[in-house]
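Hey, quick one: can you model this chain's 3D structure?
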Amino acid sequence: MEISNSHLSNIKALKSAILQSRYQAASLANKELLRLYFAVGKFISQKIDEEKWGAKVIENLSSDLQMELPGLRGFSATNMKRMRLFFESWEDHFLISPSVTAKLEVLDLQDIVFSPSVTAKLENSFLNVSFTHHIEVLQSTKVLEERIFYIQKTASEFWSLSTLKNHLNNQTFQKTGSLPNNFSKTILNDEVRQKALQSFKDEYLLDFINIEDNDEKDERVLESEIVQNIKKFLMSLGSDFAFIANQYRLIVEDEEYFLDLLFFNRRLQCLVVFELKTGKFKPEYMGKMNFYLSALDEYVKQPHEQPSIGIILCKEKKNKVVEFSFRDFNKAMGVATYKTSTELPAAYKGVLPDVETLKKLMD
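Sure thing. Here's the predicted structure for all 363 residues.
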């Protein structure tokens, strides 16, 4: 039986309504859970201060709760300690209404508002992030601005827990906006320039790539690894990037040129080229990239899009060499480095299996 356009339209409308309702229900449930955990954390924190509770008391409290409410989940002694951490990490940044008493009660977050210093940054994202995500952020960060960054990103880009951990391990906060670039001279619009600075990192952790030493001279091997793991590469770039092609073909005056990786960035509304170099950055890479960007803007860029941006992704670089190389070029470019699974820094050891372990797993 042929389905009419009207019927398809009705199905689409119903599907949209159902999904929206489910999302709102999940969002409301998460908000209530955060309110409860904040209240329990406040209660435990006060009891520790006032009655000198120790770890044993919390363990007994957890056991008693399990007896009173069989099947209760989320109130293990470990999780209750996390609730305390949740409260104590944020209490200095909340304005708590005097009407809220010291006794245990489910605090209504209408009675708890953020202090003016963080209100605008957190009010639309804090309650949309799960408790598990919150704890991961609190345990992995120390600075308020860093916590705000990861909470905002988790809420706006719908990061899974594994994605959040990857960004924390990769120190995305520290590396975002630190990319050596010539944006100040080539991107004249202040708003677009700021967005561009926030869209790229100085270093990318490509922990899904395992390149042997004898492959390091061949950029195509690196490119192939990235393309085979394009979803993971996109995850490391950020949610605004859409993959277009690898070895993207350009023809200029009957000659062919091939771009390693071509993306479109929705936030910046522009094409982004990644050129891959497995060795040290060289100044001559700039001229080639400037040529590619000029050709893209002439032949590929749509009229409503912003000028293209180029990123040279190499094994290593010296910032002063990069700085001198940028001079006199009129296209927006940056230079970033990458690390693969074969050379993880000490902080990442143990997070991922080493090369030999991976080989055994593959056999």
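One thing worth noting: The longest strand covers residues 241-252.
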